[in-house]
Amino acid sequence: MQTVETLNEGLKRAYTVTITSKDIDARVDKEVKAIAPQVRMPGFRAGKVPANLVKKMHGESLQRDALNNSIQESIQKLIADQKLRPAMQPSVELDEGFEFGKDAEIKVALEVLPDIAAPSIEGLKLERLTVEVADAQVDEAAGRIATQQGALEEHAASHKAKDGDTLKIDFVGKVDGEPFEGGSAEGVNLKIGAGQFIPGFEEQLTGVKKGEEKTIEVTFPEDYGAEHLAGKAATFDVTVQSILNGDKPKVDEEFAKSLGLEGLDKLKELLKGQIEQEHNGLTRTHMKRKLLDQLAAAHDFDVPPSMVEAEFEQIWQQLQHEATHEEDPAAAIAEMEAEKEDYRAIAVRRVRLGLLLSEIGQANGVIVNDQEMNRLIMQAAQQYGPQDRERFVQYVRQDPMAAAQLRAPLYEDKVVDFLFEKAEVTDRAVTKEELEAAIEAEDGDIKPHVHGPNCGHDHDEKPKAKKAAKKGEAEADAPAADEAPAAEEAPKKAAPKKAAAKKDEAVAEDATAEEKPKKKAAPKKAAAKAE
Q: Given this model, what pLDDT does residue 460 score?
């Protein structure tokens, strides 16, 4: 094998590798000898078919396999000899004029990971915002459970609906005397006084009885999410199927025991633990963002363009997917296009932080051990049916890239925990609202993907699309982060439910305020149906 370097510029490398025909032919001969004992041919005893006949029968296939194997081994040898650290899979091209029997010339192009100076982890200072669990929070949580446990019982036919009752109704909505799309439903539960429906709807059902039919007159709000209904007068022909009463149980010893617990104290102890866990998660999120900001500010180095492009494509594809489910897809896409470079900058930051965390982890012996990896595999396998779980487990165990992708989030968490231990941490007590506000104010756009050992850079964390903004609406505050992609939404219908203005959903977790695209207020949406 002969190797000639043709490019060495920044992180880009290119080589011409020549594989001799002699090497390829030797591989073919070796394979012929290996398969000859299994070849069957009329006129010859088993295993006695001459090598030249075996080669004549299977020569083309053997030559292709020999060439492919030679190319793979040559690339591995090139990487080892040149001490390369590929950022992505190398690009390999075989000379167009190649013919079997001649030397094979291949062109190899790749980008390498940057040489990162030993990351400085000294002098890190972090503030840990802590929230104490108040008794009132525990009582409120217990009350919610009681409400959920409360059974709805049907009132007598003579009962007149009052505030707090739940009505099961059918309705047909009309504008100018004509039913409109999405304005009809059957068997809908409506609680009087809950404010689920547009103003004036629930109040007009006070006093109705089971089986009663009533026509309600309302006007859709001017800012209603469905523009063809905004500000318009409408009528709803309502039929009351039944009236239900859902008095919640009293939170006491008997209630706690009905849940299978020892008593009320045990219930409160469990609820307090859950609330503490929630608070600790918020505290960690805030600390992690502050940590990543410090690391990003202290380290600056070139990152492989191919990795940035792959990261950006993941971001962009998810944004495009989410945009198609907006009320105004064209506006959402136009807003995305206007901020395209902002998202590209986010991809650069995400890749840089991922490489940095990986370097810190490797330099300090951070690993995901076999026991932790087995637990990750088994947890991931649960998303498949029983018949597919074993195949998934085998796939992950045999594919280093799949294993690395599964390992990466835990590896990142362990590196972050290691840095927390090294940092100088001061505590400050705050309220939950103050902690949430601090997170929201710093909310970023993309969570870093740690490029850990053997990472395949196949990023599975996809950002959410920004919501298209209505003309003239004020800019919204930075929203809360949501790491998981949104599920595909079904087409929505207009209904007499009150449309709620949704805040933009964050596309990430760690970018600083300066790096994130501006968020604009989202348009108000019509509800899919009355809840």
A: 34
